[in-house]
Prior knowledge:
Shape of chain A: rod-shaped
Helix content of chain B: 55-70%
Number of helices of chain A: 9
Number of strands of chain A: 0
Largest interface: A-B, 22 and 19 residues
Strand content of chain B: 5-15%
Strand content of chain A: under 5%
Largest sheet of chain A: none
Structural class of chain A: mainly alpha
Structural class of chain B: alpha+beta
Shape of chain B: elongated
Distance between the termini of chain A: 107 Å
Number of strands of chain B: 3
Radius of gyration of chain A: 36 Å
Oligomer: heterodimer
Order of helices and strands of chain B: HEHHEEH
Strand order of the largest sheet of chain B: 1-3-2
Order of helices and strands of chain A: HHHHHHHHH
Amino acid sequence: xxxxxxxxxxxxxxxxxxxxxxxxxxxxxEQHIAFKMADGYSEEEIVAKLGDPFLIAAQFETDDSQxxxxxxxxxAIGALFILAIPAALxxxxxxxxxxxxxxxxxxxxxxxxxxxxxxxxxxxxxxMPYWNGAVFGLAAAALALLLAVGCVYYAAFIRQLARAxxxxxxxxxxxxxGTAPLPNLTIFPQLGGKxxxxxxxxxxxxxxxxxxxxxxGILAAILSTGSFQFWHSWNWFSGASAG
Amino acid sequence: MNPQYKKGVLExxxxxxxxxxxxxxYELSEYLANHIRIAVxxxxxxxxxLRNDGLLTTYLQEESGGPPRKYYSLTSLGHKQFxxxxxxxxxxxxxxxxxxxxxxxxxx
Lengths: 243, 108
């Protein structure tokens, strides 16, 4: 067998197996033969020592066997595509919930500002003495803070879930194409230990503040009007607010 | 020798050689074919497999009066894998040796 016989057989066999970098492989054998010929060996001798090109090509294939399972990759792509639809819907739902949570936090924050600053925009706030309103404002502010903390937690959860999902997709493709998979991600930890502790403290404090100021606000309202039904004393539902 | 078995040992030999210094494919295949009875051409598939597994990297280096040579170099993963495989192999070989020596002993 001549050098050209060897190389063309090898090329054909590699191409038949759909090898990704046939040219690169063959060029290494070309170089090998060139080195040997420079040392004065004959083509036949060199090619005989290299071995059977059919067997060599087969060896490359077994090395790439996971990579070259023709169906596996497409199967994985199909599976990921089907998985993508419920996953996208799930993420959409989670994100919408997060936005709702954020909107609630902003609303209660706005309510607090309105009560503190005594800005009765469009007479939306039922009439009451300023200090009673301010105590309720404090409750609203604390609730806004609590919701904001919840929102941060929730966002971190979604982020980690998205990462875990991305990693899962990556690993499904990796296993189908024969490359090394990365370790799977868990849902935890979403936040660092320090951030977590601070957020937990903030959540507890704002919850406590919200509860306490709400109770205080109601008590103050009852005491200042001398009635358990303080809303009647302030004419909330008698049309007075409209007038 | 069983070809699968030989292949595993060859991989270990390639890693061991590359631990000393970087080699280009020609050197490695000639060296191994001269020491172990294998076809020279069967070393390149092993090099490629080890590279695909992330144990080796390659780089091209210009040589005076010739095309650039593709050198193989051990990655940090390759170093770790080599230490592990080397220990495994030596342990395995020690046990086999023990068994084989016991075998000849009993026959006497």
